[in-house]
Amino acid sequence: MTIRLAIAQIAPKKADYERNLARIGGIFEQVADEPADLLILPETALTGYFLEGGVREVARPAHQVFQDLLTTYRASGPAKSGHSLDILVGFYELDAGRYYNSALYATLSPTDSAESKLIHVHRKFFLPTYGVFDEKRFVSRGRVINAYSTRFGPAATLICEDVWHSLTTVIAALKGAQILFVPSASPGREFSGSTIGNIAHYDRLLPNIATEHNIFVVYAGLVGFEGGKGFTGSSQVIDPFGKVLVRGPVMEEYMVRAEIDLDDLAVARAASPMLADLEAVIGDLLLELNRTVRRAPDNGSSHD
């Protein structure tokens, strides 16, 4: 199965949910010029990232964000042509009195058919609180990592720092994900000549994830400046052989386009069955992990 992807590497208007929603309406029109099956937007694309206490002013329940996206889509050119579109977008979520840094995946249909649905919401698992980051003070962390069914096959979402921890991608792959979406808001840092540290890290990390688990990795990076900090973009799509199929520019708005063929998964997994090897030994690894956790010293202290 071939899937046409469009990654909208955008700079949202900080703390302006309505304006950013309208901007996505414009992106729907842009997608109509070169139809896509799936539109991916970065972390917090509906609000901007560095909001601190302002999160409570822009956070919305996931079902409301879905309905807003659906209404916007049905007023757009692609919907008028009868074309359904899947979308993944980052936003600040309000649920049961708590705020989360979340990303939803949904199918938007041009009619009132049952095809339109909110399929999955992932809440960011790792909230950075170091350097320029202070997320943990203002949002709660997610506690579940799941694969979910889409009309193109099983997928998973991990937001930004979630993917920096190897165990999260292991869980996503073992739960059956064939595509891993990574929406991100990553400020540029560790500048050395022409090298930007966070981009260099992702350039090493993402292909390794793809080859270790024989999956597609789709990274969507925010751009723009907030409080003097510039997000680096560099959106990319990596195939299950670890090859970068397409890459967006650094710190520029851009529509990144790619086609992926899910039949490549079977070829990659036959050539280098890394995921199958992991599945074969996962029981023993879990025993080792449990032993390691039990042996871990409490607060770094040692006991005679």
Written description of the protein model:
α1 crosses α3. Helix content is 31%, strand content 29%. The N and C termini lie far apart (60 Å). The protein has 304 residues and is of the alpha/beta class. The protein has helices spanning 17-33, 55-58, 62-74, 77-80, 166-174, 197-213, 263-271, 274-295, and strands at 2-9, 38-40, 85-95, 98-108, 117-123, 147-150, 153-157, 179-184, 191-192, 195-196, 216-221, 223-226, 229-232, 236-238, 244-247, 254-261.
Give a quick rundown of the structure.
With 304 residues, the chain is of the alpha/beta class.
- Give the low-pLDDT segments: 300-304
Helix content: 25-40%
* Shape label: globular
Task: Give the name of the CATH architecture.
Answer: 4-Layer Sandwich
Question: Radius of gyration over alpha carbons?
Answer: 19 Å
CATH class: Alpha Beta
Q: Strand-and-helix sequence, N→C?
A: EHEHHHEEEEEHEEEHEEEEEEHH
Calculate the mean pLDDT score and round it: 93
Placed side by side, the strands forming the largest sheet appear as 5-4-3-2-1-16
Residue share in β-strands: 25-35%
- CATH fold-type name: Nitrilase/N-carbamoyl-D-aminoacid amidohydrolase
Biggest sheet details:
6 strands, mixed
What's the layout of helices and strands?
Layout: E1 2-9, H1 17-33, E2 38-40, H2 55-58, H3 62-74, H4 77-80, E3 85-95, E4 98-108, E5 117-123, E6 147-150, E7 153-157, H5 166-174, E8 179-184, E9 191-192, E10 195-196, H6 197-213, E11 216-221, E12 223-226, E13 229-232, E14 236-238, E15 244-247, E16 254-261, H7 263-271, H8 274-295
Parallel strand pairs: 1-2, 2-3, 7-8, 8-11
Antiparallel strand pairs: 1-16, 3-4, 4-5, 6-7, 9-10, 11-14, 12-13, 14-15
Helix pairs in contact: 1-3
